[in-house]
Amino acid sequence: MEAELQTDIVVRPVRDVDAVDLGRVHATCWHETYDHLISKAALEKVSPRRLAELWTHWAVQGDDFRMFAALVEGVIVGFAGSGPARDKDAVRNRELYFIYLLDAWHGTGIGQKLFDAVVPADEEIYLWVAEDNPRAHRFYTRNGFSLDGATHTEPFLGETLTEVRFVR
Prior knowledge:
Layout: E1 9-13, H1 19-34, H2 40-43, H3 48-58, E2 66-72, E3 75-84, E4 94-101, H4 110-118, E5 126-130, H5 134-142, E6 146-156, E7 159-167
Parallel strand pairs: 4-5
Antiparallel strand pairs: 1-2, 2-3, 3-4, 5-7, 6-7
């Protein structure tokens, strides 16, 4: 598929019937996003089926959660989610949990559409992102976020990942 030739882009709320497709896209995005941060052996443990099982729960969490999928010609190519802050000492009441988009669709505006669907323009919110993810850093800065100096190390696929906090 050529990203620049596609015109049929839909961003809509995630449905429970999307779980299998979301699991597949989620696993692929993790490979594309973290291949320089996490070992190949760890990434090989990522199971689209296991992620699909998680999505069956994430898709129906309630009104406080915003979970959206992006589809191109009816096929899911990315997703985003936000909801109540998960940190005990959260700097905002809401947190952007994730935005993942298949590499082939970067730079097409779909990531921005996903972001806009889960984060209203005037919302005060924070997020954690891999420290070594300059593309994401630029995206969040462009959307009014700034680093606040907080970092933490998270277990990720049996390894560790250093994340930095952006706040808006």
